[in-house]
Amino acid sequence: MIFNRLFCNRGILYQNFRQHGWLGILYLITLLFSLPLHIATEHRDIPQQITSLFQSNGETHILFAITFPVAMGIFLFRYMQSGAPSDLFHGLPLQRKHLLTVNLLTGFGMILVPIWLTTAITGWVWAAQDGLAFIFNGSEIWMWGLSMSIYSLFMFMLTVAVGMCIGQSVLQGLTVYAILLLPVVFWFIFTLHLQHYLFGYPYGDMNSYAEKISLVLRMASISNYPVIGRELAIYAALALVFIPLSYVLYAKRKVESATQAITFTLVKPIFRFGLMFTLVLIGGAYFTMIAPPGSTGWTIFGYVLGGIVGYIVAEMIIRKTWLIWNGRLLPKLVLYGLLSGLILYVPVADWNGYAARVPEMNDVKSIKLGGDHYTYVNGVNQKVDDQPFYSDDPEFMEAVLALHQKIITSDLSLPDPVYPDDNYDEYVYINYKLNNGKVMKRRYQIPEAEFRQELMALKQSPDYKRVAYDTYKLDEDLLSIGIRSTISSYRKVYIGSPDQVREFKELLKQDILDQTYEEQRSPWQSFAYAEMNQESASNDPHQPKEMWSFEIKPSYDRVIGWLKENKLYDQLLITADEIASAQFVKQEINSPGYPQWVTTQPEYIDGSLSGSKQVATKNKKIISDLLERQRSGERTEKATVYQIKLNAIRGENIYMMLKEEDLTEDMKAILADQ
Question: Quick check: helix, strand or coil at residue 653?
Fold first, then answer.
């Protein structure tokens, strides 16, 4: 009886639903339109197999989950942020814990009832209607209801907890979303700082996880990355923590703090420093991006300017006036500035040993080169288990450690995160799995010429080629193999016989593993591409089969010999008799300090972009030589290249590019007068 009278006071419950119940009704309507109605009315010729209902309009679901609960938290506790209503409610014969409990129960009801009504109606649509556009199990319906409940309750309780520390409703809402975005801001911008000043920092590894640490960014990834139990457990735990925290804060909150920006003295320095340090990072990142290459002074200026602006803005918000100038302002600004400087400096300082650390051979269990691998199944990106990509081969591990040691002892400059040095044409991404269970990661950009011996020892090892060229996929069962010419997509052959498929992939694997270092760095285009068709890993019978593509380089003698033996090689070739003529256009690249990516450019020779003189020839020997010489693109500051067009008698024309040193004597002869 006491519980019903005090904790579930019917008068306050009635008043809450009368004043704010429209939010729960609107939440229900929007959820019904975004899920069951969408599923029932969506039409697809081929139904889509999904493993989560968030793959069906999931961005909208998350948008509602991060907006309606926040609005409910603001409206239900609006009385605390206004002077007269605050006096009125706190003058009632109810303790604060009673007021908070009845308002929390109101909020829980306005959130959970719409979600579970939507879940039930979705289940009815799934059971009653045939031919839905999406194929899913009943467990996905309950998982959606559970996920939406946890997301929504987390947002509601975060809003309530923040509201206890903030005395203005607008600032309360802004603070809630600032807290959600703050980890992302720190993640991206502090990563940019570490990349700029910390040699070897593996910045690329972090970006794939950034959108999972904020519900605001989760909107963009929810369709491709499934909701996992650990994620829900974290949000559920935080929501539960906010409940007793709200009771504690509410008990200590003063009634007269209504309309104040910050209600607790202890929170004010946290707010000042949080806003100041955020603008320190933003200011440093902004001036890093707009400053000329290597201008460290501008970055420091950005940090200082961001800190000053951030502190002044925070002080104005707290005092609710721009008249903040007094004798204590400057000392506090200096103190906060020194603390910000320490946070920026300590992680990148030389004395912490990060940049110079190379593990001992005895401390390393295995090594992987490269980042994470993902696969796309049933419309969802899933991380592939990386254990098969680690190697404990002593030869491979010694080669990696030798390369790492030379990188550390060399005089390499830190890469500019905005203006990368294109002379650094090799990326080295090392993952050490240590004996103590930890993983040590480093990433470098290095010039190939300076590290050729170390790179040669590494890249000629079988374990490097196995991962770099995905040869482990050739050990799996294949349905068929399609081979297409590099210079003409119309030239294709198919291998469907199980015996031939087995022979081909075995020879291809041997050729890949036998590549020399020079063959791996060859500037010439591949002869053809082999597309390996596998059984689909999806439960959807309409899901496309998995496909992997492998180059067939001119140096792959076993594979090319096998194609000739099986009368397939000639079907991929284009002969000089099929080409009417060849056109050459000279292209000069001269941009010191600004390397360009030079590749085949059909528009350069076909359109009006080139004012250069064109040279044409019908010489069959020259045409035959061209069909055997196609250069891959490259970055360069200065070069003379020739854009070439082979005019086919029938079918598609062929475009290619050669550098001046690639030309034969016959080609040089006809181009001498150009």
Answer: coil
Q: In the prediction, which pLDDT does 422 show?
A: 52
Would you call 63 helix, strand, or coil by DSSP?
A: helix
Give the count of beta carbons closer than 10 Å to the beta carbon of residue 160. 29
Q: What is the pLDDT of residue 458?
A: 92
Query: How far is it, in rounded angstroms, from Cα 279 to Cα 281?
Result: 5
**In this predicted structure, what is the pLDDT of residue 1?**
43
Comparing C-alpha atoms, which of 351, 343, 339, 344 is closest to residue 300? 344
Which residues does residue 439 pair with via DSSP β-bridges, in sequence order? 433
CB 258 within 8 A of CB 162: no
Tell me the range of 23-32, 72-81, 581-590 where mean pLDDT is highest.
23-32
CA distance linking residue 579 with residue 571, whole number of Å = 16
Which of 15-24, 355-364, 664-673 has the highest average model confidence (pLDDT)? 355-364
* Complete DSSP assignment for 568-635: -HHHH---GGGEEEEEEEEEEEE-TTS-EEE---HHHHHSSS--SPEEEE--HHHHHHHHT--BPPEE
Contact assessment for residue 546 and residue 597, using Cβ atoms and an 8 Å cutoff: no
- The CA distance from 426 to 607, in Å, is 35
Taking residues 478-483, what's their average pLDDT?
87
CB atoms near residue 479 (< 10 Å): 14
Mapping DSSP onto H, E and C, the string for 346-408 reads HHHCHHHCCCCCCCCHHHEEEEEECCCCEEEECCEEEECCCHHHCECCHHHHHHHHHHHHHHH
SS3 416: coil
CB 644 within 8 A of CB 584: yes
Q: Is residue 648 helix, strand or coil? A: strand
pLDDT tens column, 486-497: 888 788 999 888
Contact 532, 547 (CB under 8 A): yes
194-216 average pLDDT score: 72
Tokens 């590290």 found at: 451
> Is residue 521 predicted with pLDDT exceeding 70?
yes
User: Cα separation of 113 and 69, whole Å?
Assistant: 13
Task: Read off the amino acid at residue 653.
Answer: N
Taking the C-alpha atoms of residue 72 and residue 108, their distance in angstroms, rounded to an integer, is 10
**Do strands 48-49 and 134-135 pair parallel, antiparallel, or not at all (unpaired)?**
parallel
Taking alpha carbons only, the member of 529, 394, 402, 520 closest to residue 468 is 520
From CA 275, how far away is CA 296, in angstroms rounded? Answer: 24
At 284 the three-state DSSP class reads: helix
Report the candidate in 343, 390, 395, 342 with the shortest Cα–Cα distance to residue 367: 390
**pLDDT at residue 544 in the model:** 52
CA–CA separation, 256 vs 261, rounded Å? 12
- The Cα-based distances of 56 to 46, 53, 221, 380, 432 in angstroms read 15, 5, 13, 12, 39
Mean of the per-residue pLDDT values for the chain? 83
Residue 411: partners with Cβ closer than 8 Å, 6 or more residues away: none
Nearest to 445 by CA among 209, 202, 633, 191: 202
Evaluate if residue 184 carries a pLDDT over 70: yes
Residue 144 DSSP SS3 = helix
* Look-up of token digits 């926040």: 70
